[in-house]
Design goal:
Alkaline Phosphatase, subunit A; 2 domains; single chain; Arylsulfatase, C-terminal domain; alpha/beta; 18% strand; 4-stranded antiparallel beta sheet; 10-stranded mixed beta sheet; 489 residues
């Protein structure tokens, strides 16, 4: 081979190797029900979150990040697909026996990164349904996360307060005994096992009327379940199990292949049942204690990256699936302490609301040498934007039809001074009758009584409705929202 051709080949190979080496590992931690004011670096004073505060210190803290929905399932749908969940009927809060809400073949963060050569993993809460018919938890549960691009999945099917209370690994329930099959019903009582509404004296924490069905681990849930006793989780050790799975996934990755881990802790979703080693460690009862438990989980991940020497080439992002809430769904004996600090700081509203407290969430990003350390950014961004952003970081052009609503915010994430402001963002609650739209500093909120208008730059707490004094702006934003509703892709 002539020398010039040899040099050309070597140059191309070297360039390819360098490109592969500079693509970051990506760990996305999406907590559950953690509000804007629930962690130290966002102003919390009654809990201590040293590991999350470390992320803020070694990376950038974003102050205008949003979950696109103020409840879990729609946010997770939008996160994975880059598509607003309100565009797809039936993507409200899913029951524990829901079919898969994301059609197989839909481009997701996992499938796009897998196509870019990444090893992909899901550890934690799923809550997007399984299978094409009502799931049989004694058989293969598919399609599910694996069919949507995850090489490995270890997950909670729905939520901690819904049956079935088991872990699933890829397609099968973990530790299920064939002689003790699982039956699940959301239509009515099944079997003869005790339920919470009849046996309050059996409960370690008491649930309200909507959380008074099957009793698992001394806690009554939504929905009925029989069987699967060996497979049932113990709430006090869920965080330990998921952290161990996350650490193991990171440890078994190959040095020459980047990886993507979506870690979705159960904390701090109800029922909030901290491991005994965390109880009494906060000033906010068990709710504060599970925030400490969540921070410990983050610390386990960060410590693993340090131990393996891969922290410098790993992008770590922490956020939440919706705003926080102080609720009385369960009574753990420490409920009066839960509200000592506002879960959403000064923000109006909470989980389920179209006001800022429902969807503005913590967002911390660390990638040493790429994302500036110790900085704060007011840039508008949303979890729906992560699919195209991660694909760009991985050197991949997203598939045709992927992420119709997500915006590539790589330059925003890296604090590029030339980064453009994100265009209008549409927000939802569990229901889609009313939506909100954010455009620059302005926000229009649809309500049964008519639209409300807020200037968030001057009024972050949304105390002053300007709809009557700014009719032209209301009309303009309403037209933008109508156009978004009408757009099919």
């Amino acid at each position: 081979m002539p020398l010039y051709r040899l040099l050309t080949v070597l140059f191309l190979l070297l360039g390819s190797a360098v490109s592969a080496a500079t693509r970051p590992n990506i760990i996305l931690i999406v907590s559950d029900d953690v509000g804007y004011g629930d962690i130290g670096c966002y102003g919390a004073t009654h809990v201590r979150t040293p590991n999350l505060d470390r992320l803020a210190r070694e990376g950038t803290r974003f102050t205008d990040a949003h979950a696109t929905a103020s409840v879990c399932t729609p946010t997770r749908f939008a996160l994975l697909t880059g598509k607003y969940a309100w565009r797809v009927p039936g993507t409200g809060i899913a029951p524990g026996d829901s079919t898969l809400l994301i059609p197989q073949g839909t481009p997701t963060i996992a499938s796009e990164l897998k196509s870019a050569g990444y090893s992909t993993g899901l550890i934690g809460k799923w809550h997007l349904g399984l299978g094409t018919t009502t799931p049989d938890f004694n058989s293969d549960l598919k399609p599910g996360p694996v069919e949507l691009g995850f090489d490995y999945a270890f997950f909670i099917p729905a939520t901690g307060d819904r049956v079935p209370c088991v872990f699933v690994q890829n397609h099968r329930v973990v530790d299920l005994e064939p002689t003790d099959p699982i039956t699940v019903s959301y239509k009515g009582r099944i079997g003869n096992e005790p339920i919470g509404s009849e046996h309050q004296d059996w409960l370690k924490i008491k649930g309200d009327r909507s959380h008074s069905d099957a009793i698992v681990n001394g806690i009554s849930r939504i929905g009925f379940m029989t069987g699967g006793h060996r497979a049932q989780w113990v709430d006090e050790t869920i965080a330990d199990t998921l952290a161990r799975q996350a650490v193991t996934f990171i440890e078994r990755q190959k040095e020459d292949q980047p990886f993507f881990l979506l870690l979705t802790p159960h904390d701090i979703h109800e029922p909030m049942v901290p491991n005994p080693r965390f109880r009494g460690t906060s000033d906010c009862g068990w709710r504060g204690d599970v925030i400490h438990q969540l921070d410990w989980t983050v610390g386990e991940v960060l410590g693993t990256l340090d131990r393996l020497g891969i922290a410098k080439n790993t992008l770590v992002i922490f956020s939440s699936d919706n705003g926080g809430a102080i609720k009385s769904t369960y009574d753990d004996g420490t409920n009066p302490l839960h509200g000592r600090q506002s879960s959403n700081g000064i923000l109006r509203g909470q989980k389920g609301s179209l006001y800022e407290g429902g969807h503005r969430v913590p967002f911390l990003a660390r990638w040493p040498g790429h994302i500036p350390a110790g900085r704060e950014s007011p840039a508008l961004l949303a979890l729906v934007d992560l699919l195209p952003t991660f694909a760009d970081l991985a050197g991949r052009t997203i598939s045709t039809g992927a992420s119709p609503d997500g915006v590539n915010l790589k330059s925003t994430l890296l604090l590029d001074a030339k980064a453009k402001q994100r265009p209008a963002l549409v927000l939802q609650s569990n229901r889609t009758t009313y939506l909100a739209i954010r455009d620059g500093d302005w926000k229009l909120v649809e309500t049964a009584a008519g639209p409300q208008l807020y200037n968030l730059a001057a009024d972050l707490v949304e105390a002053h409705d300007l709809a009557k004094s700014e009719p032209a702006r209301v009309k303009s934003l309403a037209a933008k929202l109508a156009a978004e509703r009408a757009r099919t892709q």
